[in-house]
Amino acid sequence: MGDPTAFGNLTPPDELLQAVRDSIDLNESRCYGPTNGDFIARQAVAEYYAHHGKISPDDVILCSGCAHALDLAITVLAEPGQNILVPRPGYMLYQTIAEGLGIVIKYYNLLPDQNWEVDLKNLEDQIDDKTAALILLNPSNPCGSVYTEEHLTDILRVSLKHRLPIIADEIYEHFVIFENKFTSVAALSKDVPILVCSGLTKRFLVPGWRMGWLVIHDRQGTFNVEIRKGLRNLAGRLLGPNKLMQCALPKILTSVPKSFFRGMMSFIENQAILACEELERAPGLRPMLPQGAMYMMIEIKMSMFPAFRNELEFIERMYSEQSVLCIPGQCFQFPNYMRIVLTVPEHILREACMRIQTFCRDYIMKENHIN
What is the reported pLDDT for 364? Predict the structure, then answer.
């Protein structure tokens, strides 16, 4: 599961918890507020993104998690019959949202042997006169990739050429390891309008508290009339997000020390090294060391496992025999791969990797014995 809190070994910072405790006693934490979020909370988010350029509270809409922000962004930019471009492999929610609205999904490929960078030619080949937006997921779930400024600039160049706005899913912002650097595409864009979707979920370890936001980056004023109005209207459907968390948000975004994030990233980095070293010993697998997020993609060399028609059968059998469950690549439109999560406790990750090794060895030995 993509929930860093599921096993209880990763907990939110004390400063965040205290900010929420302080908010409980405030009468305004129980009241309805503006459907796009309280001004003070939106101002806190605007200041949090000051390094992107000039951001005002009017550029921020508070949401019930990043998923809600993505729903707003897709709904406002695309109409039924139009299409949006989605990375492959990529997060499944984009398809769920879009197809429920009658919007077509078109996939653009990522390159596994180039740190999952966007295949720019393939991206451009997908664009037609019905393409409404490009979704850019950075850092990536499931790939664990973190794009360089140079690569983001190349993507912006394609977007500008085709007058294509970007929906930037940055829920894993700053969730980077091995000295990689996260750069928001919005910080680089001068001409391409961008809707950044993010929230507290992953970086602050509170996925169940559903506090997210959408930030409008639009230096040329492209979104000034229809899109901004549409976002405000759409925000009214749910009467605004969690008010208690809104009241705590200014303290959360300013009081958590950098040492907390460094410690968490050090843990993820060590987990990535452990998983990669252990799974490299599993015959028929190729683990791919991530650059960020909290996942690792693993190639399954299916030709070495003829007992299985695809990676889904491989994973089902591994779950049945070894009680280890991975997410099949088919869930991300990318067969012959599987995804593991790195946030589990070290002893569980180590045990899981050993069981995966055993499973792979057993089936390769069976095949050799049959042959």
Answer: 86
Give which of 185, 212, 248 is closest to 73, Cα–Cα: 212
DSSP-assigned beta bridge partners for residue 214: 61, 197
Neighbours of 277 (CB within 10 A): 12
Rounded to whole angstroms, how far apart are CA atoms 284 and 286? 7
Distance separating alpha carbons of residues 254 and 30, to the nearest angstrom: 23
- In contact, 65 and 199? CB cutoff 8 Å: yes
- CA 2 to CA 136: how far, in whole Å? 19
- Split the chain (371 residues) into runs of 10 and give each run's mean pLDDT: 91 97 95 95 96 92 97 98 97 94 98 97 98 98 97 98 98 95 96 97 95 96 93 93 96 96 97 98 97 97 95 97 96 96 97 98 75 53
pLDDT for res 369: 58
277's enclosing H/E stretch is helix 258-279
Cβ contact 101:76 at 8 Å: no
C-alpha to C-alpha distance for 19 and 44, rounded to whole angstroms: 14
Greatest extent of the chain over all pairs of C-alpha atoms, in Å? 73
From 300, 267, 306, select the one nearest 283 (Cα to Cα): 300
In one letter, which amino acid is 124? E
Q: How far apart are CA 58 and CA 43, in angstroms?
A: 8
